[in-house]
Amino acid sequence: MTTEPDFTDAETAEPSTAAPVWRLWILLVWHPVLGLPVDPVAVLGLDESRQPAERVVRWVPLVYEVADPWRERLRETTTGEDIERWIAQSGGTCSLEPADVPEGALDLTHAADLVLDGLLAEVIPALPPRGDG
């Protein structure tokens, strides 16, 4: 008596060729002393390889009120079309800048956390005080 090998779906499924498509942006608001939207208030990450796209937002601590314009823009879901619209509208009180996915990021959340850590360590301390507080 011979037995047929018992393959599970995972063993017979073709490996996924779709790598995660992680994109990150730094969300900026108006800095009253500098007169430009250069004050980082959050990091937004999207994984567009998932449907619906996975979104991660990491807020800079202690910027609740100044981050309100971004809180109003961000809904439960964020799409690539939203990002394109916001880029087109950049230059006023809000702006966003693309950020590179950090090397060694384990997932989208980790990538956003690494970008936020860099902002907290290097960028935010270099900005002059807002002067509105």
Mind explaining what this structure looks like?
This protein is of the alpha+beta class. It contains 4 helices and 4 strands; from the N terminus they run αβββααβα. Strands 3-2-1-4 form a 4-stranded antiparallel sheet, with helices on both faces. The N and C termini lie far apart (82 Å).
Strand-helix topology:
Layout: H1 9-12, E1 22-31, E2 36-47, E3 54-59, H2 68-73, H3 80-89, E4 94-99, H4 108-126
Antiparallel strand pairs: 1-2, 1-4, 2-3
Number of strands: 4
Give the helix level as a range of percent: 25-40%
Q: Any low-confidence stretches, pLDDT <50, length ≥5?
A: 1-18
Overall pLDDT = 83
Counted by DSSP, the helix tally is: 4
The proportion of residues in beta strands is 25-35%
* Helix-strand category: alpha+beta
Rg of Cα set: 20 Å
Concise account of the structure shown:
This protein has about 130 residues and is an alpha+beta fold.
Main attributes?
single chain, 133 residues, alpha+beta, four-stranded antiparallel sheet, 4 helices, 4 strands, globular, disordered N terminus
